[in-house]
Design brief:
The protein is of the alpha+beta class. It has one domain (4-220): Jelly Rolls (Sandwich), CATH 2.60.120.620. It has six helices and 13 strands. The chain has helices at residues 4-13, 24-34, 66-71, 74-84, 111-115, 167-176, and strands spanning 15-18, 42-47, 53-59, 88-98, 106-109, 125-131, 142-145, 156-159, 162-165, 179-181, 189-193, 198-200, 209-218. The strands form three sheets. It has a seven-stranded antiparallel beta sheet with strand order 1-11-6-13-4-3-2. The structure holds 2-oxoglutaric acid. 2-oxoglutaric acid binds at residues 94, 96, 106, 111, 142, 198, 200, 211, 213.
């Protein structure tokens, strides 16, 4: 459960990093499963300006698998509901993998920059990024523009093969708002608002950077026109030991 101070930090800064949400045994199980293909996943190759490539595997359902146990974990869902002040449903989840010396940079963007086009009227959406490796400046941890969630949604366009925020506005924002590198130990969760500007640098290190990101929308914010992701229904909470029921050796 979040403290009043963590909720205040999120409201002020647009993000909060919560350590030790998952223990080392749970992280080892998740890491062992992260390399496997998963039923229903769509794999995107994220390419940056330097030609480096990262893998992003995404899905919209909460399956009876180890990653479903995270997306439905009361530790994440409860915290996300506290931060959004609303009941939520699962929008999608994704594994973002940056291989050593190869993982691509992500351009600055807001997640609501895209989700707006999926028919969501309000920015009542949140991403929860679970570190499965130590996430450091060297291997391309997430960085944020502190307080940028209060700007509202900015225009986005194509930047190379990625979608990124309007470069003119971004240049001003980078002058005016502090940038924070969100170095994150394994098992921590970075909760960030869907209008928080975020990006990450390439992985030039010898170590991988793998993260699992669960995203949620408020149930009051159903997309119009039959668009959107996920099933708009309350999330059935996974038991607290749900991840431990899976075996790292059988991944
Ligand atoms: O994995 C990363 O570094 C960034 C991922 C991201 O920004 C996204 O999936 O929207």
């Amino acid at each position: 459960m979040l403290t009043a101070e963590q909720i205040r930090d999120y409201d002020r800064d647009g993000y909060v990093l919560v350590p030790d949400v998952f223990n080392p045994t749970e992280v080892a199980i998740l890491k062992a499963h992260a390399g496997r293909e998963r039923r229903g996943e769509t794999v995107h190759q994220v390419v940056d300006a330097g030609g480096r490539v990262s893998k992003l595997a995404a899905w919209v359902d909460i399956a009876e698998d180890v990653f479903g146990a995270v997306s439905a974990s009361p530790r994440i869902v409860g915290a996300a509901q506290l931060l959004l002040r609303e009941e939520i449903y699962h929008w999608h989840s994704k594994l973002s993998v940056k291989q050593p010396r190869a993982g691509a940079a992500w351009e600055w963007h807001q997640d609501y920059g895209y989700w707006y086009n999926d028919g969501c009227l309000y920015p009542n959406m949140i991403s929860c990024m679970v570190a499965l490796d130590p996430s450091t400046r060297e291997n391309g941890c997430l960085k944020v523009l502190v307080g940028s969630h209060r700007l509202g949604r900015c225009d986005h366009g194509r930047i190379g093969s990625q979608t990124g925020a309007d470069p003119e506005r971004l240049a001003i924002l980078e002058e005016r708002l502090p940038v924070r590198y969100c170095e994150a130990p394994p098992g921590s969760v970075l909760f960030f608002h869907c209008n928080t500007f975020h990006s990450s640098e390439p992985n030039l290190s010898e170590k991988p950077r793998c993260a699992y990101i669960c995203c949620y929308n408020a149930l009051s914010n159903l997309p119009y026109g039959g668009k959107g992701h996920g099933k708009p229904e309350p999330i059935k909470p996974a038991p607290d030991d749900a991840i431990l029921r899976f075996d790292a050796a059988k991944a």
